[in-house]
């Protein structure tokens, strides 16, 4: 079982063959230098044998000893140079491969769909991109070195000692089969315990990430002690998993060292008798002792290799699980056909949708949005408003033929082209830890001279977006203006400023369809009115969808849809709905009452 587990571990590394092939020249030179170092190392005991035998003979010249010493110094200089070179070639290549895999992993993660991130925690993904890739690097760097070095050294030493004195060598190698058995036995157990350690590290990382991402909530509810305990629990689990690994690891190497040390005792007895009987010279016995000391590293290296390969295989498997995951939402494999001119910019046909973990969110919903009109969507929480928007932009995958944009099924669109049609400001105004300028300009790719000349299209678009989102006056109050850093998730901005920054970002590039998903909920009435009036003037003739619970936000739209449990409960102009006595009219009355009371 342990042997089959080790063999299976080796099979995981086939996914690294393209990377290893790309750096094969560096690896070849590295292994050539490593073998030269090994060859030079096994020569040194021969210098020692010759020197001791000369001294033991009683008739020698100091010049001969000096020549032997000079030879040893030259060989050691060669060893030093060779060690530098194999580290440069092999460790350098393994570092480059680690970097490439990490970039590939990050790029692949960005292609995965919305549902993937609902199933996987960010802390676990970070652990795979850091700790796991570090273990992979060790396996294709130091692990390969230990494998080649141990094999070459062990084979060379065994050949030399058998040539030098076969009878003594037979006794010296008696513990070797036991060492091999121990290596195979411990290999699988080390891999399993290392996997457990990596999993607990991922859980601990996720706890840290989640805590600091929600630090405002933690402090607002005075839950520091609760989160400290939660982290302490995961930290203890990580400690226990590592202690279990270290216990096994700690028993593994001392046992190998003990068995290899038995060879010294055996050689002392057997070799001493051979020297006394005249079958072996004192120098040969000294060289044999030196070779046996050198043999300890290949024996320990074998265990080290098993450990590194097991760790690397476990980690590489975890990384490959991500790389082998295909996005559930992809562009069509064939060249997408072009959209056709239609009376309706967006059409929904009998759309029903349910998330995997729940009941249907949308139920047989149908609607058509004409080109250039403003549509308002209202409804209770959970009525399907945001899900409908996700279906339009294909953040979720609607059934074929149920969602059409510009006359073409969203499943037939190239994803990049489809989403480029939309400017979306979602409920969660997520901002990056960057400047206000860069947060707004993520949709564009301005050159370095962006701020040098106030003439380019990017600059004009940026300034227009600032004015439309009513952010231009706010920037004047920031010391560094648009270059002000806003902290993680916009920590230094108010809720309304974050929403308006997100709105400005959605307006960049003048998208064909603008969607504001409850994007004005944290904005005061005066600022909201300024934004809407500006958008009405700027986006005349362009399709705009506004989701809101505020009747005041929807008063200027052409058409209002009221959703209830995934169905259209009401539809009409704001004036028509206000007279029907339905949900829209009730919300209008309640909000008008609230405004009246607030003015008392």
Chain-wise SSE layout:
Blueprint: H1 2-12, H2 17-22, H3 24-57, H4 62-111, H5 114-119, H6 122-140, H7 142-164, H8 166-172, H9 176-213, H10 215-220, H11 224-276, H12 282-323, E1 344-354, E2 360-370, E3 374-379, H13 385-392, E4 403-405, E5 408-409, H14 415-420, E6 422-425, H15 436-440, H16 457-468, H17 472-475, H18 495-507, E7 513-517, H19 525-538, E8 543-547, H20 551-554, E9 559-564, E10 567-572, H21 574-578, H22 583-598
Parallel strand pairs: 3-8, 3-9, 6-7, 7-8
Antiparallel strand pairs: 1-2, 1-4, 4-5, 9-10
Helix pairs in contact: 1-9, 1-12, 3-4, 3-7, 3-12, 4-6, 6-7, 6-9, 6-12, 7-8, 7-12, 8-11, 9-11, 9-12, 11-12, 16-18
Please provide a written account of the structure.
It is a single chain. The protein is of the alpha/beta class and 600 residues long. The chain folds into two domains: 2-323, Up-down Bundle (ABC transporter transmembrane region fold), CATH 1.20.1560; 344-598, 3-Layer(aba) Sandwich (Rossmann fold). Helices cover 64% and strands 10% of the residues. The protein has helices at 2-12, 17-22, 24-57, 62-111, 114-119, 122-140, 142-164, 166-172, 176-213, 215-220, 224-276, 282-323, 385-392, 415-420, 436-440, 457-468, 472-475, 495-507, 525-538, 551-554, 574-578, 583-598; strands spanning 344-354, 360-370, 374-379, 403-405, 408-409, 422-425, 513-517, 543-547, 559-564, 567-572. Helix 19 (525-538) links the parallel strand 7 (513-517) and strand 8 (543-547). The radius of gyration is 36 Å and the shape is elongated. It starts with a helix and ends with a helix.
């Amino acid at each position: 079982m342990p042997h089959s587990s080790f063999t299976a571990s080796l099979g995981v590394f086939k996914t690294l063959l393209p990377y290893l092939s790309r750096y094969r020249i560096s690896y070849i030179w590295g292994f050539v230098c490593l073998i030269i170092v090994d060859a030079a190392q096994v020569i040194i005991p021969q210098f020692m044998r010759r020197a001791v035998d000369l001294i033991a003979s009683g008739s020698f010249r100091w010049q001969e000893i000096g020549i032997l010493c000079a030879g040893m110094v030259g060989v050691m200089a060669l060893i030093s140079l060779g060690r530098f070179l194999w580290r440069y070639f092999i460790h350098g290549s393994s570092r480059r491969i680690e970097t490439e895999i990490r970039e590939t992993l990050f790029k692949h993660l960005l292609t995965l769909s919305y549902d993937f991130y609902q199933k996987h925690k960010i802390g676990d993904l970070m652990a795979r991109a850091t700790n796991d890739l570090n273990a992979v690097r060790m396996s294709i760097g130091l692990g390969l070195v230990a494998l080649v070095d141990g094999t070459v050294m062990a084979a060379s030493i065994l050949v030399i000692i058998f040539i030098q004195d076969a009878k003594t060598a037979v006794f010296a190698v008696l513990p070797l089969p036991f060492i091999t058995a121990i290596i195979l036995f411990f290999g699988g157990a080390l891999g399993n315990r290392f996997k457990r350690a990596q999993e607990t590290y991922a859980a601990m990382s996720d706890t840290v990430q989640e805590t600091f991402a929600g630090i405002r909530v933690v402090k607002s509810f005075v839950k520091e002690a609760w989160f400290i305990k939660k982290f302490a629990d995961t930290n203890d689990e990580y400690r226990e998993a590592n202690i279990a690994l270290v216990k096994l690891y700690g028993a593994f190497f001392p046992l190998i060292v003990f068995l290899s040390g038995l060879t010294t005792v055996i050689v002392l007895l057997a070799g001493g008798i051979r020297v006394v009987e005249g079958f072996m010279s004192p120098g040969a016995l000294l060289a044999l002792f030196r070779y046996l000391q050198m043999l300890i590293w290949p024996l320990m290296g074998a265990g080290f290799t098993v450990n590194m390969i097991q760790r690397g295989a476990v980690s590489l498997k975890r990384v490959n699980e991500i790389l082998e995951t295909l996005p559930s939402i992809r562009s069509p494999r064939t060249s997408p056909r072009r959209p056709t001119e239609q009376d309706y910019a967006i059409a929904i046909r009998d759309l029903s949708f349910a998330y995997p973990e729940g009941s249907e969110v949308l139920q047989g919903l149908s609607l058509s949005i004409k080109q250039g009109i403003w549509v308002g969507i209202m409804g209770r929480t959970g009525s399907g408003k945001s899900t409908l928007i996700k279906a339009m932009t294909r953040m979720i995958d609607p059934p074929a033929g149920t969602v059409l944009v510009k006359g073409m099924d969203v499943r037939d669109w190239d994803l990049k082209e489809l989403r480029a049609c939309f400017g979306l400001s979602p409920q969660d105004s997520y901002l990056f830890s960057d400047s206000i300028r860069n947060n707004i300009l993520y949709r564009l790719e301005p050159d370095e001279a962006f701020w040098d000349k106030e003439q380019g299209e990017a600059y004009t678009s940026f300034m227009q977006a600032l004015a439309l989102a009513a952010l231009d006056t706010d920037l004047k109050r920031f010391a560094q203006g648009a270059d002000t850093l806003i902290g993680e998730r916009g920590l230094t901005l108010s809720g309304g400023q974050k929403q308006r920054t997100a709105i400005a970002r959605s307006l960049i590039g003048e998208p064909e369809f603008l969607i504001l998903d409850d994007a004005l909920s944290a904005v005061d009435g005066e600022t909201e009115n300024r934004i809407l009036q500006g958008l009405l003037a700027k986006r005349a003739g362009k399709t705009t969808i506004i989701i809101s619970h505020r009747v005041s936000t929807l008063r200027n739209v052409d058409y209002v849809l009221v959703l209830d449990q995934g169905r259209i409960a009401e539809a009409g102009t704001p004036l028509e709905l206000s007279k029907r006595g339905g949900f829209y009219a009730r919300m209008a009355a309640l909000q008008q009452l609230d405004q009246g009371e607030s003015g008392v």
